[in-house]
């Protein structure tokens, strides 16, 4: 029987209650907190595992923790996180009830630089386990690195967003801008709003 981070594939293929999801996620979280697979563990303040409702229909995946996330150990709590919460609310989604949020990387890269391929390769099994435990109906990729990982397509973000894709998990995927990119270029916000509206539409189908 093949295992994914110590959790059997057979069990991951089953349906189970929210309390079981929480227990499985906690088992993965403990492994993350002991991770030494890449040098980022030496420079991080806190591991940033994930946050939200494990039974949510929508799972959002960012790229890597920033400074505020590194300090608090929670994804999307800084300015970008505030904007993300606003975008969700505008689309009619409650961040705590309707969404689970994680990142491709669980540790902050120094200086908020882009994730490196070897870091993504080392950390992605944790995200893989989170997705397979949560089993969302819709995946939302925030930024090109999560878009590349979830779609399996190494295309520009402009070619990935604005439409429904099939993720590598067989789950419907919408790729949009990272909130930090919108803060740098506010002209992107209207397109991002449309992407979140598309996520909501898929959830309602």
Automatic annotation (TrEMBL):
Its EC number is 3.2.2.27. Keywords: 4Fe-4S, DNA damage, DNA repair, Hydrolase, Iron, Iron-sulfur, Metal-binding. The keyword tRNA-binding does not apply. One of its GO terms (molecular function) is uracil DNA N-glycosylase activity. It comes from the Bacteria. Residues 49-204 form the Uracil-DNA glycosylase-like domain. InterPro entries: UDG_Type-4/5, Ura-DNA_glyco_family4, Uracil-DNA_glycosylase-like, Uracil-DNA_glycosylase-like_sf. It catalyses: Hydrolyzes single-stranded DNA or mismatched double-stranded DNA and polynucleotides, releasing free uracil. The keyword DNA damage applies. CDD domains: UDG-F4_TTUDGA_SPO1dp_like. It is an enzyme of class 3 (hydrolase). One of its GO terms (biological process) is DNA repair. Belongs to the uracil-DNA glycosylase (UDG) superfamily. Type 4 (UDGa) family. This is Type-4 uracil-DNA glycosylase. It comes from candidate division WOR-3 bacterium.
């Amino acid at each position: 029987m093949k295992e994914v981070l110590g959790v059997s594939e057979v069990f991951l293929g089953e349906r189970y209650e929210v309390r079981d999801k929480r227990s499985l996620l906690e088992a993965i979280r403990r492994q993350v907190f002991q991770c030494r697979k890449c040098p980022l563990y030496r420079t991080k303040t806190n591991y940033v595992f994930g946050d939200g409702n494990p039974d949510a229909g929508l799972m959002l995946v960012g790229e890597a923790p920033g400074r505020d996330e590194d300090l608090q150990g929670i994804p999307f709590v800084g300015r970008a996180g505030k904007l993300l919460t606003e975008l969700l609310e505008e689309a009619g989604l409650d961040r705590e009830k309707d969404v689970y949020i994680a990142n491709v990387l669980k540790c902050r890269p120094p200086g908020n630089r882009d994730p490196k391929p070897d870091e993504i390769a080392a950390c992605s099994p944790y995200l893989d386990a989170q997705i397979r435990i949560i089993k969302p109906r819709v995946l939302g990729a925030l930024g090109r690195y999560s878009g590349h990982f979830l779609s399996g397509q190494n295309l520009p973000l402009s070619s990935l967003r604005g439409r429904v894709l099939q993720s590598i998990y067989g789950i419907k995927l919408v790729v949009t801008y990272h909130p930090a990119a919108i803060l740098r270029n506010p002209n992107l916000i209207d397109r991002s709003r449309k992407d979140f509206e598309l996520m909501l539409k898929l959830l309602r189908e």
